[in-house]
Design brief:
Blueprint: E1 7-10, H1 17-34, H2 48-53, H3 59-70, H4 78-94, H5 96-103, E2 112-115
Antiparallel strand pairs: 1-2
Helix pairs in contact: 1-3, 1-4, 4-5
Amino acid sequence: MKTFEKRSTIDLSGFGGGYEETCQILLAIGKKWIENKPFSIWEGKGSLKKKYLDGKDGLRPTLFKELERAIDSNNITGTQADVVMCHLWYIHKHGRAKWLKDAKKHREPSDFFEWPQEGSKLLKK
């Protein structure tokens, strides 16, 4: 099982529980995956959904499948994929600090939290 360093984040799904946990796992793994990649991986290939769901440009076979393997699931919902990929795009373009700063302009304080939570089996010790 993968474990993660604690970090500040925002509620991605609005659903909480295991659904949100999956989104946070996907975001953490996706963030690591995009770290050393040029932003051009997102450009010039049609809609964001088309980029990673139709497999024609390379993102689906790499990032999306890597995310599925990382959580031992091929049951990621379309909504989870959409929200995480949109946040990854923003983080890749502007950086994590700006992502959090900009989110504070239009999100409720209760949407911000530390993840993984204390006591979580996902928290790196």
